[in-house]
């Protein structure tokens, strides 16, 4: 059994929607034979109570002890080594500090949603985590009915893409891998590119894919990944492919040459998190790795 290089950190706001992330974190902890650190951050300047806030948080002044009790009960039946951490402060700062201090190799979180307003509540924190955390960030959106198997890795054949692929192989060692590349076919003037132009861009992407896989030693000895090359905007064609092929997990880097794999993922990442039906693993490029 492959083991993570460090524990898994689950960052939870204790909302009902966060149960999906908890269940997935527990499943991964068992699969990877590691430890689960469950972190809840009490914000120093909490926002006023809202409909999505649990009753026990609205009615109790002793948030810390109640949060610890709630999490201990959630973990009581889980057959995995675990530790509960409840701290105060800025969520982003505390999540990264805890992940580093425990030597965690993965951060797992969910996306809480204010259904009344129809907007993401934790989107900003998740986006900042993806840009700043050293560890890959797994954003859980779906109910974990089964282990990850069909994994879709978005790639632009850059070093950041290779790190994303390595993270996918570490998290899901027995994955059915698909490498997905969206390539741009520029318009010449206002005319639609002819078939010859389109084929030339496809051939270029195909050559890049062959070089990328050949230069990724972690793929040696494994079943070669399926390679899918499609023209268009990455966040659009990737979402369509993921939906049509029912991918369990989509993996993407934050650094690269084009599209969603760029230094400031910003609004593209938010659109990706919104549009993808599957869970998303976001891997930041660490220089020198």
TrEMBL record:
What family does this belong to? Belongs to the universal stress protein A family.
Looking at the record, the residues that make up the UspA domain are 7-141, 148-284
- Protein name, please? UspA domain-containing protein
Tell me the lineage of the source organism: Bacteria, Pseudomonadati, Pseudomonadota, Betaproteobacteria, Burkholderiales
Tell me a Gene Ontology molecular-function term this record carries.
ATP binding
Among SUPFAM superfamilies, the record links this protein to:
Adenine nucleotide alpha hydrolases-like (SSF52402)
Sorted alphabetically, the keyword list is: ATP-binding, Nucleotide-binding
Q: Which Pfam families match?
A: Usp
**InterPro entries given in the database record:** Rossmann-like_a/b/a_fold, Universal_stress_UspA, UspA
Does the record's keyword annotation contain Nucleotide-binding?
A: yes
Superkingdom assignment: Bacteria
CDD domains this protein is in? USP-like
